[in-house]
Write a structure and sequence with these properties.
The complex is a heterodimer of chains A (485) and B (272). Chain A is of the alpha+beta class. Chain A has 15 helices and 18 strands. Chain A is elongated, with a radius of gyration of 34 Å. Chain B is an alpha/beta fold and 272 residues long. Chain B has two domains: 2-38, no CATH class; 59-256, Rossmann fold, CATH 3.40.50.300. Chain B has helices at 2-8, 32-38, 63-68, 91-102, 120-125, 141-154, 169-182, 236-240, 249-252, and strands spanning 57-58, 74-75, 79-83, 108-112, 117-118, 133-136, 157-163, 185-190, 203-209, 214-220, 230-232. In chain B, the strands form two sheets. An eight-stranded mixed beta sheet of chain B has the order 6-4-7-8-3-9-10-11, with helices on both faces. Chain B is globular. The chains are: A alpha+beta (485), B alpha/beta (272). At the A-B interface, helix 14, strand 12, strand 13 and strand 14 of A face helix 4, strand 5, helix 5, strand 6 and helix 6 of B.
Chain lengths: 485, 272
């Protein structure tokens, strides 16, 4: 099987990593001395700005330009995140410090049903990511890299690659300046001319370094590659360029981490059931410790897709109030389960669009309302009315009840139970405003756990026709405990 | 009779030869039979007629009420509005047979902001599988409406019950749209004072407890006009008219089943 490599070049990564929303106006990076432009985005280039332009010129051409400084640490962080994201496309990924990723794809094509489908898939995912990119394939790593940096080239077959490579200038080989100058001095401007020369002559006249480079390009000599090893735990931190003051502003940076999570989970065939997000707040003046906030988000069934998690975080953020601006965030994935397709119910929810499964609905409700707002109710084997049911945390899908309870039907029970029995004025009963229709049913229980009761329960008709469940305690006081609603 | 065909649009590949309609009685026209069976033509006064072929009809468990509901029961994918003044007016007993049936489905039955605790032993006694019941207490009115809408349109719920306070008809309309999207049954509970307001809910029912049972008035129903008041015991006979001397466990097992006023048959049936 022939080898095939794919090179992803992110030319604007140093700039785009500093964005804080999907749309950005003209912006540019400054060089180390902060005198000239080092990198411009497309909007800035449309205004006539160019790399190497003096700051003053740039400002006069485009007054609203946003000038930023490079953040090398964030760039390498982001490249790592991108490598995790790319993990779903290839297991063999190599990071290049000048904002590139090298992917071995020949072995992956069968799983994507061919090259075209692979490429379409890749483009789709790239678009969601929001980074400008140049893509090229090649039969050697160096060929892919050269073509990508030259503007991109996509083909499945070997022959067109050779033609495209042959037309590249020799400078694309990234030799040292001296050798490049010598080559141009000799009239060798294109790679084709170099390849046409006899190998032995090339080595003796221009040095073995050049020959090695050419051999790597043609594949006669393998290129040593250090592959990226994904971390065992998913924990990604993102330092924000701007302090974020609204919770919705966190969504854009979070989306980038979630894209990496998707790749990470996808390559392991896992779904995350729990995500933890740490929000690092701007340190206050009075304390050394950096304050942070921890938010957990659960998914009942496990999920890996970016869009689903992002939607859940969006709902969760609606409940979030930021005390102080956020300067960094860190996402950790804790609980996993195996990725298998969720089974939608065939018979009951197919009437039109089988929308959400019960688990998905529960996850959605949890995200917006919080865990404590949602409860299940189950019967419990206890004779005391207030203890013969239990609230349970709703975590799982509806399953047949396994809770123990007394067999139903021994006595009538009301549909509504009051949370606390409500005292009834004795005259209501003395004057027969409440007519007792049924009873008494004596319940004496609970002597073992300090909540004993001794009550006589009745069903009574209220003057307005409703049926209430009331009792008289051992002191002769009357209470309402429920309604036959 | 020619315009009829344009209204009902018979299938093009109909095997039957096109024939001229001669009889004035539409029931005799063989081309109309399939349409009538599918329920695409509603005939006034024919209560047995189903209105929408895709909607499932679910018996309310009370035959007298079923008779008043077109199609012999609730049609799923609709909102049922129950109007009454005080909690305990028979609203649960009216719905328990329906919920018992729906709880057989592997989907949630969501109770949003119930005024009291839905008492699990009573629900179980009525045949409701309590493991399907989710109780939601939302903090704000906005959250409540959001929950109801999400639950109704998700398809993850077979029924959604919501106790609404002050809501605009706009919200009710949204809930109705959500319910019709997924085919869930929605029950909203509101005070009687809203009886005069207009509402988009296809079913509107007033409940009024009396000394003999509960007066039930269908002030609006799907595919029909308002109906006169109906008095249902809603299981009160079995609740109260027991003989103390036979108050034994043997007879008690019968009490689990909701009483039907005019028959002794088991409590629920699915009517198609």
């Amino acid at each position: 099987m022939s080898t095939l490599w794919l090179y992803l070049h992110f030319p604007l990564l140093p700039l785009e990593v500093l964005y804080h929303s999907d749309e950005s106006g003209p912006s540019a990076l400054l060089d180390e001395r902060r005198a000239r432009l080092w990198l411009c985005n497309t909007t800035a280039e449309a205004e006539g700005l160019k790399t190497g332009m003096a700051v003053a010129t740039a400002r006069s051409l485009c007054p609203q330009i946003q000038l930023l400084n490079r953040q090398p640490q964030q760039e390498s962080q982001q490249l790592q995140t991108l490598a995790l994201w790319a993990n779903r496309f290839s297991a063999q990924i190599s990071l290049r410090s000048d904002h590139g990723l090298l992917l071995e794809i020949a072995s992956m094509l069968p799983y994507f049903k061919g090259f075209n489908s692979f490429y379409r898939h890749l483009r789709q995912q790239l678009q969601k990511l929001g980074f400008s990119s140049l893509i090229a394939t090649g039969h050697t790593p160096l060929a892919a890299r050269m073509l990508a940096r030259d503007g991109g080239f996509i083909h499945r077959e070997s022959e067109p690659h050779q033609q495209a490579l042959a037309q590249l200038p020799v400078s694309a080989l990234e030799l040292d300046n001296k050798t490049t100058e010598r080559l141009t001095g000799m009239g060798l401007r294109q790679v084709r001319q170099l390849l046409d020369l006899p190998r032995d002559e090339l080595a003796s006249r221009l040095g073995s370094e050049l020959l090695e480079r050419v051999d790597r390009l043609t594949g006669q000599q393998p290129e040593p590659i250090e592959f990226f090893v994904p971390p065992a735990h998913f924990c990604q931190r993102l330092d924000l360029q701007h302090e974020v003051e609204t919770s919705q502003g966190l969504l854009f940076p979070l989306k980038r981490i979630l894209a990496a999570l998707e790749g990470y989970l996808h390559s392991r065939q896992l779904r995350a059931q729990q995500l933890q997000l740490q929000l690092f707040e701007r340190a206050s003046l009075h304390s050394d410790q950096q304050p942070r906030q921890l938010i957990e988000l659960n998914h009942a069934d496990g999920e890996y897709r970016t869009e689903s998690w992002l939607e859940l975080w969006r709902l969760r953020f609606e409940r979030l109030h930021l005390q102080r601006p956020i300067i960094a965030l860190e996402l950790t994935a804790e609980l996993f389960n195996d990725q298998k397709p969720s089974v939608n119910d065939l018979f009951h929810s197919t009437r039109q669009q089988p929308g959400m499964t019960p688990q998905q609905l529960l996850t959605r409700l949890h995200s917006r309302l919080g865990k404590q707002a949602i409860k299940r109710i189950v019967p419990h084997a206890d004779h005391r009315p207030e203890k013969s049911w239990k609230p349970l945390e709703a975590t799982s899908l509806p399953t047949p009840s396994t809770e123990s309870s007394f067999p139903p039907g021994q006595h009538q029970r009301p549909g509504w139970l009051l949370a606390t029995p409500k005292p009834l004025p004795p005259q209501q009963l003395q004057q027969q405003l409440i007519r007792l229709l049924q009873g008494p049913e004596r319940i004496v229980s609970g002597w073992w756990d300090n909540a004993p009761i001794r009550r006589d329960y009745y069903i009574g008709r209220w003057p307005d026709g409703r049926l209430g469940w009331l009792f008289r305690d051992h002191q002769g006081n009357w209470f309402l405990h429920g309604w036959f609603g | 009779m020619q315009p009829l065909s344009s209204i009902t649009a018979p299938p093009k590949n109909n095997d039957q030869p096109q024939q001229q309609v001669t009889s004035p009685c539409v029931d005799k026209d063989p081309r109309l039979q399939p349409l009538l069976q599918q329920g695409r033509i509603w005939q006034a006064g024919d209560h047995q007629q189903h209105s929408a072929s895709s909607a499932e009809t679910l018996s309310s468990g009370y035959p007298l009420l079923d008779q008043q509901l077109i199609g012999d029961g609730w049609q799923t994918g609709n909102l049922v509005e129950l109007l009454y003044d005080r909690n305990g007016s028979g609203e649960l007993r009216l719905l328990l047979p329906t919920l018992a049936k729906l709880s057989q489905q592997p989907r949630w039955i969501l109770w949003v902001n119930p005024p009291h605790i839905p008492y699990a032993p009573a629900l179980q006694a009525a045949g409701v599988d309590t493991s399907k019941i989710l109780m939601v207490h939302s903090q704000s009115h906005q959250d409540q409406l959001w929950t109801l809408e999400q639950a109704l349109k998700s398809g993850g719920c077979s029924a959604v019950l919501g106790w609404l306070g002050e809501v605009q008809d706009k919200s009710i309309r949204r809930l109705q749209v959500a319910a019709s999207d997924s085919g869930a049954l929605g029950f909203v509970f509101r005070p009687q004072q809203y009886r005069q307001n207009s509402s988009s809910a296809p079913y509107r029912i007033c409940l009024h407890p009396t000394n003999k049972g509960v007066d039930i008035t269908l002030i609006k129903r799907k595919n029909g006009w308002a109906m006169p008041t109906l008095q249902l015991a809603l299981g009160e006979d079995q609740l109260l008219h027991r003989q103390p001397k036979t108050d034994s466990q043997f007879q008690a097992s019968n009490l689990a089943k909701p009483q039907q006023p005019d028959s002794q048959s088991p409590h629920l049936r699915l009517v198609r």
